[in-house]
# Entry
Amino acid sequence: MPTIAAAPDSRAQRRQRFLLRGVRSAGVGIVIALVITGVFGSGFWPNLVQSICIATCCWFATDLGRVPLARWAHRNDPPDAPEAASHWPGWPLMLVAVVLGTIFGFSVGNAIANLILGRDFGGYFRGDWQQMLTLLLGSLVPGTVITYWFYSRETIAGKEAAIQDAKRQAAEHQLKLLESQLEPHMLFNTLANLRVLIGVDPKRAQAMLDQLIAFLRATLAGSRAARHPLRAEFARLGDYLALMQIRMGERLQMRFELPEALAALPVPPLLLQPLVENCIKHGLEPAVAGGRIDVVAARDRDALVLTVRDTGAGLSTPSVEGTKFGLVQVRERLAALYGEHAALTLRAAADAEGGTIATIRLPLSESASEAK
# Structure
């Protein structure tokens, strides 16, 4: 017994599918008119009018008739049960709806066609029982086949929608898990830096702690959102690097480049944070003179390109290996949010300043649509 096991549809979706079945029924009427004309050689226009009127009235009566039957069949089911939401009564009751809908729809459709064409074509109840039985069987067979085809298609579509919904929920749960891991990771890194500073310069450590408290108040609440503007991501990085400057002093320089046209584009929160942390841990800290961190946003045709570059030790240093937690988190978040349409690449800088360049490419069309 086919059932449509998708998530409950909205009223607009059910109305759209109802009308689509009506259009398809009219299409079936056109096909029947062509067949009758080709077989019997009668006029196409009368056959077309009568076939479309009968087909659409049979569909309308059958489709409306199944709804109360489905409600009665699922009267004891939970309100959120997939079978109840599908309005499918099961094949035994559906055959009842087809028989009653066909008899009623044929009679009404035939009467409408006679009115339009100005003729008197007999119906179920205007002849002997043999004629009535012939008309009934001739209507029921295609009606049952068409009903089976319609609801088989909707069953398949419903199951596909349920699969897509399950995939979407799984991706959302995975994304929440990744984000819940990322925030403590950033905090632990900052506390580790603070611990080092306490033993070297307690006064600067106190200033760093004050800055950390302000930073956490301003950023942790905002990081719970699924997206925030790119300008907010840059502002958060600026606060974090200002926090790191208290410990590193002149060994840490920064440069941000964010075109105003891209500032409102939505991006996942803390997307660039792990890359900046990598720049400090693997790039600037191993270098005696420190270096500079550049964070740049640009547009490349249909992509938003975010670049995080440091001028530190570069990829050749052994410390670059580490646990690679940040890179893994960024790649997994991109895969969960954008699939194959986003990517993270890491390479050594080829110019005289040296260092490492991390580049994220996001689909600009999706980001732009979310920003509206």
